[in-house]
Inverse folding.
């Protein structure tokens, strides 16, 4: 059976697992941005915290994903449902690129621009929302882009703990020793990653200040 | 709250010192009064404390000891935001907002002060004309302007809310010699019309003589002396004389660049 035949015969399931996959990644990215961007901004104001915070985020990155899914199983509330574990793990992996790029992006705004804004009587909030964030936005989006691409790949492993998504096909194919079934999970996951990369890349380019 | 300053004094430094957190003293016991409507030039080499002195006026820095009185009130008693919006500020790197149009850059302080849109627009056009720019560049972004145009926009932005005091930190320093001379002349005639109290930082004696009604010479964080431009040229103190002789060597043909 070819991959194409598999898709046409299992159209409903392919769609369902793709949507589950997108849902996990989407929720995780939203949470990572809601947490990571403010933390990155906070680090630019409390620079002594840069090393410890980015250090912790870095250490999280080094935990093998399968192990992290396993560690979270006994966690209260989170561990009760596999999708919650999956989303939390994806958030943890996404935090580093989001925090780091927010921090680097704001630090990279031209000193003279910030100084002029302050000297003309902008409040800290006005400076942040009218100057620093708009000028750092493309760098922040670049971090979200990296995080999203990583998450699309990592989310396939979430099927190992029963969280669903395109990893279902991959693990099923492995168990059945059937390459077509493996590809039925791997190919759509790769397409999702490429689309996310392309779309966020366009956004990044559009928002880049000249 | 020392209200005993002379009403003609716009800015006064009283025994002002500024030290960094870890020791180094950038400014030693400065006493200096800037009179209303005068163009005071702070002249000195790099590291002499000119920029530090300037930033103490709009409270980008606060004195470690002593007081800076702005319109009779200590800078630390002012709300820093209110204080800065009453003081125009132009710097060498200009610091135009790259994501704002020329018009929004110029209208920044008026917008922060909540002026109606139409009034901000009119004011921006008026200022473009005042600094010798065509009104049609209002919709451009800073990257589409030449260095000289950017500096002009920077000056227009500093003037936008009609502040009584102007602080200018080598605003023409990064320009080529011809453009610089052009902007200096225009700025002088603009100043003679507007009569704003101006504190102008430069390391260039030529610029100081041209633009200043009074020159304060700083060296290693101390005020050496103040002079009128005529007095400066006749000064016999070795430091002032050294500036004058360097200035005159520059003018000799074949005397280097």
């Amino acid at each position: 059976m070819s991959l194409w035949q598999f898709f046409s015969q299992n159209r409903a399931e392919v769609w369902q697992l793709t949507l589950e996959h997108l849902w996990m990644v989407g929720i995780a990215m939203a949470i990572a941005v809601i947490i990571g961007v403010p933390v990155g901004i906070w680090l630019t104001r409390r620079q002594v915290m840069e090393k410890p915070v980015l250090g912790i985020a870095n250490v999280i990155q080094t935990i093998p994903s399968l192990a992290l899914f396993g560690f979270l199983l006994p966690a209260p509330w989170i561990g009760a449902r596999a999708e919650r574990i999956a989303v939390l793990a994806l958030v943890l992996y996404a935090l580093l690129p989001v925090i780091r790029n927010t921090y680097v992006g704001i630090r990279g705004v031209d000193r003279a621009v910030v100084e002029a804004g302050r000297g003309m009587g902008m409040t800290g909030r006005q400076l942040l929302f009218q100057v620093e964030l708009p000028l750092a936005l493309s760098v922040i989006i670049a971090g979200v882009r990296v995080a999203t691409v990583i998450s699309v790949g990592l989310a396939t492993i979430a099927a190992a703990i029963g969280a669903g998504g395109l990893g279902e096909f991959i693990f099923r194919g492995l168990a059945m020793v059937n390459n077509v079934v493996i590809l039925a999970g791997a190919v759509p996951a790769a397409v999702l990653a490429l689309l996310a990369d392309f779309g966020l890349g366009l956004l990044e380019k559009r928002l880049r200040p000249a | 709250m020392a209200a005993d300053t002379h009403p003609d004094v716009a800015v006064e430094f009283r025994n002002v010192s500024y030290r960094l957190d870890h020791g180094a003293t950038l400014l030693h016991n400065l006493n200096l009064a800037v009179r209303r409507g005068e163009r005071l030039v702070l002249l000195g080499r790099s590291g002499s404390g000119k920029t530090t002195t300037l930033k103490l006026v709009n409270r980008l820095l606060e004195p470690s000891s002593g007081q800076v009185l702005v319109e009779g009130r200590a800078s630390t008693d002012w709300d820093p935001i209110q204080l800065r919006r009453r003081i125009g500020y132009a710097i060498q790197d200009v610091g135009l907002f790259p994501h704002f149009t020329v018009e929004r850059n110029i209208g920044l302080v008026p917008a922060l002060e909540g002026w109606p849109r139409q009034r901000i627009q009119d004011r921006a056009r008026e200022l473009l004309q005042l600094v010798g720019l065509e009104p049609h560049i209002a919709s451009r972004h800073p990257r589409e302007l030449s260095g000289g145009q950017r500096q002009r926009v920077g000056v227009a932005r500093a003037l936008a809310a009609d502040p009584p005091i102007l602080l200018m930190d080598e605003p023409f320093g990064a320009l080529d010699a011809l453009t610089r001379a052009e902007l200096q002349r225009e700025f002088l005639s603009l100043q003679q019309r507007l009569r704003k109290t101006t504190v102008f930082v430069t390391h260039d004696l030529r610029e100081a003589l041209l633009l200043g009604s009074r020159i304060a010479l700083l060296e290693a964080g101390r005020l050496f002396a103040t002079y009128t431009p005529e007095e400066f040229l006749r000064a016999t103190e070795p430091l002032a004389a050294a500036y004058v002789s360097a200035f005159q060597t520059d003018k000799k043909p074949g005397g280097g660049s």
In short: Chain A has a mean pLDDT of 93.
